[in-house]
Design a protein that fits this description.
The chain has helices spanning about 15-25, 30-35, 35-40, 40-45, 60-70, 80-95, 110-120, 135-145, 160-170, 185-195, 210-220, 240-245, 280-295; strands spanning about 55, 105, 125-130, 150-155, 175-180, 200-205, 225-230, 250-255, 265, 270-275. By secondary structure, the protein is an alpha/beta fold. This is F-box/LRR-repeat protein.
Length: about 300
C-alpha cells in the first residue's frame, strides 16, 4: 500500500533569524539583485536585515554588476565608471547594514577613496581586504585613523612599510590579524612586520617565497602569534628548526604545493624531504658517489 505523502512546509515559514543566517552566506551579488529579491516577502525581508550585511564580499565584481543590470535601473559598469559604481554599492551596503558592517572584501580596483568612505560610514569595521597594488600612504593612514575598532586587514606588500604599520598599531589597539600579498618576503620585511605589529596573533602570507630566516623571525619575534599561513610557495625552506619553533602555534600552514604541507624523513640522515618527488641531499650524495665508483658489475 502506498504511503501517504510527507507533509511539507513552505520555505516562507522559516524563522526570520534562520533566514538571516542563510542570507549571510548568499553573498553580496545575490543579496543586492539575485535570488533573494525575487523570492517571497519573508526572504526579501531577511535579505534587507542589517545582520545579513555584517560581512560584505565584493570581490566578484563581474557577478555583482551583471546582477544589478539584470535587476533593472541602477549603476552598471557599462554606463558608470567602476570606481563610481563601487562607491554606489558601498553606500547601499552601508545603508542596509545600518552601521553594522564588520568586514568588507573589496575588488582589485578599489582604492584608498573607497577605504575612506568605509571609514566614514562604517567606523566599527573589524576587517577589510584591499588588494590594490597602488596606494597613497597619506590617504590610507587617514582612513586607518578613523577605524579604531579594526582587528585585521589583507593588503598588498606595497603597504608593508614601518611607518604605515606602526600607524595601524597606534590607531587600532585590537589589531591582531594581517594578510599580505607578496611575491617575496625577506628578513627585512619580516622585521618591519614584527617591529611595527608586535601583537599579531594571525599572520597570512600565502604563495610567497621566503627564506628560513624570515620565517624564524616571525616565530621568534611575534610572541603572541597563534596562526601562521605561509603555504603555497615553491621554494621550500622548512627545516627541523622551523618546525620546532612553530610547534607552539595552534595552526601552522606551509608548503601546500607539495603534498599539502606533508613531509617525509630520510631514514639515513633524518632530514626532512619537503618534495617527495625529489631526493634529499643525503640521497643525492649517495647517487653521486655511486656514479663516481663506476658501473656495478653484474653478479
Amino acid at each position: 500500500m502506498a504511503m501517504p505523502p510527507t507533509p511539507s512546509r513552505p520555505w516562507a515559514e522559516l524563522q526570520h533569524d534562520l533566514l538571516v543566517a542563510i542570507m549571510t552566506r548568499v553573498g553580496a551579488p545575490d543579496l543586492l539583485s539575485g535570488g533573494a529579491p525575487r523570492a517571497c516577502s519573508s526572504w526579501r525581508a531577511a535579505a534587507r536585515d542589517p545582520l545579513a550585511w555584517r560581512r560584505v564580499d565584493l570581490r566578484d565584481w563581474a557577478a555583482l554588476t551583471s546582477g544589478r543590470r539584470a535587476a533593472g535601473p541602477g549603476p552598471s559598469s557599462s554606463r558608470v565608471p567602476v570606481q563610481a559604481a563601487l562607491a554606489g554599492i558601498l553606500d547601499l551596503a552601508a545603508t542596509l547594514a545600518e552601521g553594522r558592517i564588520e568586514a568588507v572584501l573589496l575588488p582589485e580596483f578599489a582604492d584608498e577613496d573607497h577605504l575612506l568612505f568605509l571609514a566614514e560610514r562604517c567606523p566599527n569595521l573589524h576587517y577589510f581586504s584591499l588588494p590594490s597594488t597602488c596606494m597613497t600612504y597619506d590617504l590610507f593612514c587617514k582612513a586607518i585613523g578613523e577605524l579604531h575598532s579594526l582587528k585585521g586587514m589583507a593588503v598588498d606588500e606595497s603597504l608593508i612599510n614601518y611607518d604605515v604599520l606602526l600607524h595601524v598599531h597606534q590607531c587600532c589597539p585590537d589589531f591582531v590579524e594581517l594578510k599580505v600579498s607578496a611575491l617575496y618576503v625577506d628578513e627585512e620585511m619580516a622585521s618591519v612586520i614584527c617591529n611595527s605589529l608586535p601583537q599579531l596573533k594571525k599572520l597570512e602570507i600565502p604563495s610567497s617565497d621566503m627564506p628560513a630566516a624570515a620565517i624564524i623571525k616571525f616565530l621568534d619575534c611575534l610572541e603572541e602569534l597563534e596562526y601562521l599561513d605561509i603555504s603555497g610557495y615553491e621554494t621550500s625552506t622548512i627545516s627541523s628548526t622551523v618546525l620546532e619553533k612553530a610547534s607552539r602555534l595552534k595552526v601552522f600552514l606551509w608548503n601546500s604545493k607539495f603534498e599539502l604541507g606533508e613531509f617525509v624523513d630520510c631514514s639515513n640522515c633524518g632530514e626532512h624531504n619537503i618534495n617527495p618527488g625529489e631526493p634529499c641531499k643525503c640521497m643525492m650524495e649517495h647517487k653521486v658517489m655511486d656514479w663516481l665508483a663506476g658501473p656495478t658489475q653484474a653478479s
